Amino acid sequence: MKVFNYSLLSTHYSLLTTHYSLLTTHYSLLTTHYSLLTTHYSLAKSPLYFCARSSPSCHRQ
User: Fold this and answer.
1) What sign has the CA pseudo-torsion 34, 35, 36, 38?
2) Confidence of residue 10 (pLDDT cuts 50, 70, 90)
């Protein structure tokens, strides 16, 4: 019975560490996604970005 309990505990611990690892990966992906969104937003607000999109001669002036 003790061997069975130990096996269950080790499996439980393994699942917990996997779960924690997945949570940290998920958090990391969320922060990366947020960072990309804020970069995209700041680029979209930039006048240079609109200038480059509107006409090629705009940035020469």
Assistant:
1) positive
2) very high
